[in-house]
């Protein structure tokens, strides 16, 4: 091949031989092309001459014309999947290296000689982000590479080493928005939610999607004071506040303007806007705007294949934001993505594994606990198995008992972490077929946790601040909801038969007591905390507990139960705008509670007029036609029925409370997602 020969655009181009003696001496100089680079160049030239079929054609064993994309891939309508196992275009690589990188130092060796070296270079880039490096440059040759944690069969790993990046970042962002945003319930047609096209404006100012100084301070304060005390996603809140101060002071050198940082900042602003004092008409478009901007920074492939601590933190904050936007399905999807990215970051690896994690042990522990917390509570709400078991490491939790018999006082965060740990341990057990000993183990574990709580979490008389009162009722809500969830299988006839009358009666008493305590905690918490008023998880746990309590028979104190349900209905309906923000399932549950309350009042009035000596019948279906035994499948859409008529026709003796509960709490969006 002569020096004037031209190669196809996708093939590397290198001089075939020196033109004269001077050039030959310069080329042979070790400082210009060391022997290792020479061998790599020879292999690349050989690979260019012997180009094989693209990966899709090789997989299907069909003809390939070796173009980019090939005719076969174009014909099958997937030209974006047409990759070759060879280095990309040197012209594109040169342009990529000349552009400032948001991920930190990049080395020309990333064009390199093996598939593993490509991914190792990506890991070096990711480490540059975590360390706060934002400038362009070259990696040191003596740096020890970190192996891939995704595995060779990962889609991200395959695309990393074989793909040719789209020509512009805008195209990558557009592809992400059109493919992912609809899945997360985001409408990108609205001009207000358009994502920013650049990380910095042309004049060098900060991102145009950021608010003015006053609004940024207000929204950050709302997050710090109202959201952070109940979530504990950030272990470096002070550092985030310094970043906000740098933005306000226009100190562009005081923080790293990379996409993970911008994504995290917009996620904080979205969460702060949700819990702000703004009117709903102003609050709704504001937090949705910042939510879309935060998600838009995930629209480049680089950040998904190179996860960082800030990216994990941003996703953990965005999950509850999506829940509170009445989009729990999107939060479920985003939660699964968060866990996969955490695995690729190495958070599940033990500390003894060298080079396993790209964050410090303390940071990894904090992220693991936050992931388990969020995934466990959301899985409990959906009655689905959690996906974060691999993140549940026992050494992350404090001991419940100390040597010498000294007392342990777990904080709110530590108590929630322990509760999620117990949920993960026992949710994997089929308690509908478990023995009585297994249920006793559950109760003993939660009793041990209760004995180790801080004084203010045990009794409100020990609370010395408003924050401690809120923590008490918040933990009371989640703890009793967790106990009732683990006891829920006792509602099935199969489990009651296996336990016997005495055992099933004891478990039912625990179950009903936990439901009452959960509802009471929500009522008290809503009177003093905006978090319980606007949090989807708090409202869901309280409504589901009240609904199950209404459908459960053999109550010890029916009058007390009616009073609790009446107080909950009053608490939820005192603000019409809150009800308007409820999801479909929550609105159906509230309507069912109101209908049950009405039916109960009617039955009480009828019973007072009837001779007390008459045999009392079920108050829920007196004189009405019962639903046939084939179950609830005959009713297609509960929202199309009158709730009063449906509940009047429900035969509580023929159906399990779980059937009625699941039917009311079902959400079409969740059913379509297979949840």
From TrEMBL:
CDD domains, sorted: fungal_TF_MHR, GAL4
Stored PROSITE patterns: ZN2_CY6_FUNGAL_1 (PS00463), ZN2_CY6_FUNGAL_2 (PS50048)
Biased composition (Polar residues): 107-120
Entries under PANTHER family matching the protein: FLAVIN PRENYLTRANSFERASE, FLAVIN PRENYLTRANSFERASE PAD1, MITOCHONDRIAL
Organism, as annotated: Dactylonectria estremocensis
Keywords per UniProt: Metal-binding, Nucleus
GO molecular function: carboxy-lyase activity; DNA binding; DNA-binding transcription factor activity, RNA polymerase II-specific; zinc ion binding
GO biological process per UniProt: DNA-templated transcription
Parts of the chain that traverse the membrane: none
Residue ranges of every copy of the Zn(2)-C6 fungal-type domain listed in the record: 53-84
Pfam family for this entry, one: Fungal_trans
Region (Disordered): 1-34, 98-149, 607-631
Designated name of the protein: Zn(2)-C6 fungal-type domain-containing protein
């Amino acid at each position: 091949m002569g020096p004037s020969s031209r190669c196809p655009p996708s093939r590397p181009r290198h001089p075939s031989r020196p033109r004269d003696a001077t050039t030959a001496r310069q080329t042979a100089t070790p400082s210009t092309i060391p022997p290792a680079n020479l061998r790599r160049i020879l292999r690349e030239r050989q690979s260019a001459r012997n180009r094989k079929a693209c990966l899709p054609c090789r997989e299907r064993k069909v003809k390939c014309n070796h173009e980019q994309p090939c005719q076969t891939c174009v014909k099958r309508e997937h030209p974006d999947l047409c990759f070759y196992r060879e280095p990309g275009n040197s012209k594109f690589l040169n342009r990529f290296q000349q552009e400032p990188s948001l991920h930190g130092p990049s080395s020309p060796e990333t064009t390199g000689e093996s598939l593993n070296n490509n991914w190792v270079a990506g890991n070096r880039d990711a480490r540059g982000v975590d360390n706060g490096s934002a400038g362009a440059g070259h990696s040191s040759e003596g740096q020890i590479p970190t192996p891939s944690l995704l595995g060779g069969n990962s889609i991200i790993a395959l695309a990393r080493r074989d793909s040719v990046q789209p020509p512009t970042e805008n195209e990558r962002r557009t592809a992400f928005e059109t493919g992912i945003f609809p899945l997360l319930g985001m409408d990108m047609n609205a001009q207000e939610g358009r994502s920013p096209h650049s990380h910095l404006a042309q004049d060098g100012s900060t991102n145009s999607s950021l608010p003015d100084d006053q609004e940024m301070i207000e929204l950050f304060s709302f997050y710090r004071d109202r959201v952070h005390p109940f979530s504990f996603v950030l272990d470096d809140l002070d550092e985030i506040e310094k970043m906000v101060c740098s933005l306000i002071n226009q100190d562009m050198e005081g923080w790293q303007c990379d996409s993970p940082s911008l994504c995290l900042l917009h996620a904080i602003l979205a969460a702060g806007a949700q819990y702000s004092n703004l009117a709903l008409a102003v609050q709704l478009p504001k937090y949705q705007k910042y939510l879309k901007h935060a998600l838009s920074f995930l629209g480049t492939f680089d950040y998904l294949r190179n996860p960082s601590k800030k990216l994990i933190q941003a996703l953990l904050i965005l999950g509850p934001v999506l829940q509170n936007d009445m989009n729990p399905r999107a939060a479920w999807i985003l939660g699964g993505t968060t866990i996969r990215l955490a695995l690729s970051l190495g958070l599940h690896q033990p500390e003894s594994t060298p080079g396993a994690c790209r964050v410090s042990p303390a940071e990894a522990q904090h992220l693991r606990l936050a992931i388990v917390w969020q995934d466990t509570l959301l899985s409990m709400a959906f009655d689905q198995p959690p996906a974060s078991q691999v993140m549940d490491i026992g050494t992350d939790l404090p001991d419940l008992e100390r040597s010498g018999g000294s007392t342990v006082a777990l904080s709110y965060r530590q108590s929630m972490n322990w509760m999620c740990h117990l949920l993960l341990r026992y949710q994997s057990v089929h308690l509908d077929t478990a023995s009585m000993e297994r249920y006793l183990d559950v109760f003993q574990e939660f009793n041990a946790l209760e004995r180790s709580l801080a004084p203010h979490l045990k009794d409100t008389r020990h609370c010395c601040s408003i924050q401690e009162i809120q923590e008490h009722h918040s933990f009371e809500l989640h703890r009793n909801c967790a106990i009732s969830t683990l006891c829920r299988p006792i509602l099935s006839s199969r489990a009651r038969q296996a336990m016997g009358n005495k055992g099933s009666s004891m478990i039912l008493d625990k179950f009903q007591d936990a439901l009452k305590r959960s509802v009471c905690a929500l009522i008290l918490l809503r009177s003093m905390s905006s978090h319980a008023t606007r949090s989807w998880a708090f409202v869901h746990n309280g409504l589901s507990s009240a609904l199950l309590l209404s459908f459960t028979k053999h109550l010890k104190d029916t009058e007390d139960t009616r009073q609790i349900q009446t107080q909950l209905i009053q608490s939820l309906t005192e603000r019409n705008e809150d009800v308007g923000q409820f999801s479909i399932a929550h609105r159906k549950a509230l309507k069912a509670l109101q209908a049950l309350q009405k039916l109960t009042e009617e039955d009480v009035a009828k019973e007072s007029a009837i001779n007390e000596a008459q045999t009392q019948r079920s108050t829920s279906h007196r004189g009405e036609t019962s639903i046939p035994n084939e179950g609830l499948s005959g009713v297609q859409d509960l929202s199309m029925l009158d709730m009063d008529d449906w509940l009047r026709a429900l035969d509580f003796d023929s159906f399990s409370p779980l059937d009625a509960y699941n039917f009311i709490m079902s959400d079409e969006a969740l059913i379509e997602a297979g949840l």
